[in-house]
Specification:
143 residues, alpha+beta, 7 helices, single chain, 4 strands, Alpha-Beta Plaits, 41% helix
């Protein structure tokens, strides 16, 4: 089961990329695609289209465009897609870092909800939508 995570600008600028990716690798989750990119407005709006019209939409768009991000496709070796996504979501923690448990990525490194350190697909359907925003199929490597 593949999913997308994005190490967001605040985490990249704080030098947390290796630590964050290492948490997935230590769980046996493989990295099949990885790139550092600057997100333009069109890409940001496509990624966050589900939030259009919400009061935090502009903040999301502005934050992801503020500096480089690291986009990553993970392969979770669990046959049930819902459980695979649930595992990734458990590793990252709840969206609000003030409510995220210590030991999760957001609990350990997040400080502000408006400057979140990581994005992850929240369902298999979201993963199918989000991965092609950043990766062509020939940029992904199975092993």
């Amino acid at each position: 089961m593949r999913t997308l995570i994005i190490v967001k600008p605040w985490a990249v600028s704080r030098g947390l990329v290796g630590e964050i990716l290492g948490r997935f690798e230590r769980r046996g989750i493989r990295i099949e695609g990885l790139k550092v990119v600057r997100v333009d407005r069109e890409t940001a709006e496509r990624l966050y289209s589900v939030h259009k019209g919400k009061n935090f939409y502009d903040s999301l768009i502005n934050h992801i465009m503020s500096s480089p991000i690291v986009a990553c496709v993970l392969n979770i070796p669990i046959e049930d897609p819902e459980n695979a996504i649930a595992l990734v979501r458990k590793i990252i923690g709840v969206t609000d870092p003030t409510k995220a448990e210590m030991g999760t990525i957001r609990g350990d490194y997040g400080l502000r909800i408006d400057r979140n350190v990581i994005h992850a697909s929240d369902s298999p359907r979201s993963a199918e939508y989000e991965i092609p925003i950043f990766f062509k199929e020939d940029e992904l490597v199975e092993y």
